[in-house]
Design a protein that fits this description.
Structural class: alpha/beta
CATH superfamily of the largest domain: Phosphoenolpyruvate-binding domains
Radius of gyration: 24 Å
Strand content: 5-15%
Number of domains: 3
Shape: globular
Length: 557
């Protein structure tokens, strides 16, 4: 048995024979073209357009987060600057194939050098380029294999277009040798509930047909497992399936302490699935999808229609909407597209909205009107709050438009350190653990070279969360968690012990978290959280919490 380590996505475990993704198409020849420049240009443009339409069609079929990813890829494929680079190479006598290959490679290097969100998207260009070159050649693009039986898919990394439409009856698990927890592969695998381990470099040596165990909870892939290990994995998978099919109950700890379990949603289309999986409401509705694919801000009427559709799916339930979180690493021409040396620390979130206040005003008006037209309990929050003054600004503006419950995202350490004063000015706080970890650890959450620092288990991050939880308890203000940390069942218990009053996550994680909470009382959760806080680093905090969770509850006096 060989243990290959990576980053587990979710808590599932699966086993089966390996099927490897086909190798990429070989690079085109740099030989001069024998056709006219006009013919080569026409071939290139037809291929780019065809691939863009195919990506959009796949996105429409997949829906949800996958649709957002694939539409973004389609926009990248048809970027005018990229087309100009292709045209220039063809004008210099190159073939359409080579011009596409070289122009995309050049753009990839530029994006990779930028780091952050754009750097993470560089790998997506490789997939688009492969699809365009395949279209020009008239051959199938490299894709998911079909060995004729269920399999564990092993790949260098998986393109969003392939991940979005995986046949879950055939793909038992996913293993990649590259990528991290914030790669598109990880994001889409998490959203679809696929058992996955990413960044397992050793998986490059796995052979087609060999049996492996993919243990996402442990972040390992076991090759050549014994019969006993296979049976243990099978029993764990069956137990997890049984827990997932158990009657859905409101989220709570073993002593009845309510911890509502909410869904993170990127658009209204995911509402029905979230409800079916037991979401008690929405803890994070990302409104960016309305803005990112447009060259101008949507109108109040357009926004109101979308918000109303979402709220109608959750009658009498809480729905927390985050106003536009864009700018800097997600530049919008109508908001802020000025290049910045360090976009993670730039004009983003509430800062960008204040600089273009009418966009914020329109959004608040649309949200308030949708709230008035439905029975849902709408809460609205602002992203990237760093000061008490920003808190007052947003809450007062929200009140002006009739928003009844206005709060803030705690993602910047300054907001956590001043949580008592921030919460005195706001109705609630929601902790975005992804960004809070990024800023606490000075590690870009989308940069693979510092991925080891991007761990919400770090005691420094947990202490910041504890500060916010304590402030919420003292002021009787709700404190939710809406980052990826809430989807980790053991960490969810710790978060409850630190004062979180609700947890929001990808719907696929709800069943695991619900089951974990029911195993511990509030006193247990606090004891487990204290064990994690006493550690010196993320790994030891996780180990300490796991050890504390397995101890029997101490006898009460």
């Amino acid at each position: 048995m060989t243990e290959l380590r990576g980053v587990g996505i979710g808590l599932g475990v699966a086993q089966g024979p390996v099927a490897r993704m086909a190798d990429p198409l070989p690079a085109p020849s740099d030989a001069p073209s024998t056709a006219s420049a006009d013919d080569e240009t026409a071939r290139a443009r037809e291929a780019v357009a065809a691939v863009a339409r195919e990506l959009e069609a796949r996105g429409a079929q997949a829906g949800g987060a996958a649709q957002e990813v694939l539409e973004a890829q389609a926009m990248m494929a048809e970027d005018p600057a990229l087309q100009a680079e292709i045209d220039a190479r063809i004008a210099a006598g190159k073939t359409a194939e080579w011009a596409v290959h070289d122009a995309f490679a050049s753009f990839r290097e530029t994006l990779a050098a930028m780091g952050g969100y754009l750097g993470e998207r560089a790998a997506d260009l490789d997939d688009v380029a492969q699809r365009v070159v395949a279209r020009i050649r008239g051959v199938p693009a490299p894709g998911v294999p079909d060995p004729g039986h269920p399999f564990v898919l092993v790949a260098k990394d998986l393109a969003p277009a392939d991940t979005a439409l995986l046949d879950l009856d055939k793909v038992l698990a996913l293993v990649t040798t590259e990528g991290g927890p914030t790669s598109h592969t990880a994001i889409l695998a998490r959203g679809k509930g696929i058992v996955a381990v990413v960044g397992a470099a050793g998986a490059a040596g796995l052979a087609d047909g060999e049996t492996v165990i993919v243990d996402a909870a442990a972040g390992v892939v076991l090759s050549a497992p014994t019969a006993e290990e296979l049976e243990q994995a099978r029993a764990r998978a069956e137990a997890r399936a049984a827990a997932a099919s158990a009657p859905i109950t409101p989220g709570s700890l073993a002593d009845g302490t309510a911890i509502p379990l909410l869904a993170n949603l990127g658009n209204p289309e995911g509402a029905a699935e979230a409800v079916a999986l037991g979401a008690e409401g929405v803890g994070l509705f990302r409104t960016e999808f309305l803005f990112l694919s447009s060259d101008r801000a949507p109108t109040v009427e357009q926004q109101r229609a979308v918000y109303t559709a979402l709220l109608e799916a959750f009658p009498e339930r809480k729905v927390v909407a985050r106003v536009l979180d864009a700018g800097a690493d997600k530049p919008l021409a109508f908001l802020n597209d000025a290049p910045e040396d360090n976009p993670a620390l730039g004009l983003r979130g509430i800062r960008a909205l204040r600089a273009s206040e009418q966009i914020l005003r329109d959004q608040l008006q649309a949200l308030a009107e949708a709230d008035a037209a439905t029975s849902a309990d709408l809460w609205v929050m602002a992203p990237m709050i760093a000061t008490v003054e920003e808190t007052r600004y947003f809450v007062e503006l929200a009140r002006e438009y009739g928003v009844k419950t206005a709060g803030v995202m705690v993602e910047v350490p300054s907001a956590a350190l001043l949580a008592d004063r921030v919460l005195a000015a706001a109705d609630f706080a929601s902790i975005g653990t992804n960004d809070l970890t990024q800023y606490a650890m000075a590690a870009d959450r989308l940069l693979g070279s510092v991925a080891s620092f991007q761990d919400p288990w770090h005691p420094a991050v947990l202490r910041l969360i504890q500060d916010v939880g304590a402030a919420g308890a003292a002021l009787d203000k709700p404190v939710g968690i809406c980052g990826e940390a809430a989807a980790d069942p053991l960490l969810a218990v710790v978060l409850a012990g630190l004062g979180a009053t609700s947890l929001s996550m990808a719907p696929a994680a709800l069943a695991d978290v619900r089951a974990a909470l029911l195993e511990h009382t509030l006193d247990d959760a606090r004891r487990i959280a204290e064990a994690a806080l006493a550690a010196e680093d993320a790994a030891s905090a996780r180990d300490a919490a796991r050890a504390a969770a397995t101890q029997k509850k101490e006898t009460q006096p």
